[in-house]
Amino acid sequence: QQSPVSRQRPAAADAAPPALRQAVLDGLFASPKHLPSAYLYDARGSALFERICELPEYYPTRTELAILRAHADEMAGCIGDGAVLVEPGCGAGLKTCLLLSRMHAPRAYVPIEISATALQASVQAVAGRCPKLAIRPLQADFTRAFALPEGLAGARRVVFFFPGSTIGNFDPQQAQALLARWRLLGGPEAGLLIGVDLRKDPAVLQAAYDDAQGVTAAFNLNLLLRVNREFGADFDPASFAHVARYDEARGRVEMHLQSRKAQTVRVDGQALRFADGETIHTENSYKYTPDGFAAMARQAGWQEAARWSDDAARFGVQFLRA
Ligand code: AVJ
């Protein structure tokens, strides 16, 4: 068992900002219990996610990368000349550089990240690969309203790049609201290049979120270690099980942490009770059909201009215009 760390000395580098901390406490003491999926990405969680992307069962990352590689020139043509590329929740830089290197005279690249450490890492990754590019990082929570950096607010063509099917972590109403906000921020010539995981054989989805090596289980259980560290809690991760299940009617994979017994955990100085088998809902990952996604985006003010997929139609990339 891990000894709880004092709350007066949080792990500074990737400590959660106040709004996320509050969401964690609210969710744990709510009924049913839940945690924000954004809380998965502390330093260890982000490293585990990188490992998930390499797993044989986790097809989305490599499938999307192959789609980008095969069609980058067409995508760059859709994006057009002199665009500002805005990436909410920037990743490891590989997909971004692939796209930026094919774009026609990009005016600037604006990575957006809530964590200063992650933002810095992605600036460095892109700067190394695209040395002549103007990079204008923005430290912000992209799920809330934000303004483009000074001097870019009036840019003619603003294109949002949102790969990885991160949009799937939002329920359809939230996703629509998010896309509607970006549509307004981007102005009359806005564009959106977005990666969307597609509905498919439940067995394929099930395996992608419950891999044989247990990396996804470790990723999910890491939430409890983070709560221990940041809230002086005493979760025993061994007494919780990773559960992933595909709800075909809702078109979403759910991740849960399931208590293996009746138990009481201390969190932030309060008692948190679990019944045997009770779960904490930790993530939704929505899957769309290409038409279903385009219809949702249309409600948010976007018109589909192009779509790409792999031969097995596992993953989709769409370009949408204002
Ligand atoms: C990064 C949100 C796209 O939902 O597939 C991977 C996160 N969760 N395995 C996804 C995740 C479990 C991933 N996204």
TrEMBL record:
Gene3D superfamilies: Vaccinia Virus protein VP39 (3.40.50.150)
InterPro entries: EgtD, EgtD_Methyltrsf_superfamily, MeTrfase_dom, MeTrfase_EgtD-like, SAM-dependent_MTases_sf
GO molecular function: L-histidine N(alpha)-methyltransferase activity
Gene that this polypeptide is encoded by: egtD
Any single biological process term in GO: methylation
Coiled-coil stretches noted in the UniProt entry, renumbered to this chain: none
Domain of life, source organism: Bacteria
Transmembrane spans: none
Name assigned to this protein: Histidine-specific methyltransferase EgtD
Protein EC: 2.1.1.44
Keyword Ligase appears in the UniProt entry: no
Pfam families: Methyltransf_33
Record keywords, A-Z: Methyltransferase, Transferase
Residues annotated as domain Histidine-specific methyltransferase SAM-dependent: 21-321
NCBIfam families for the chain: egtD_ergothio
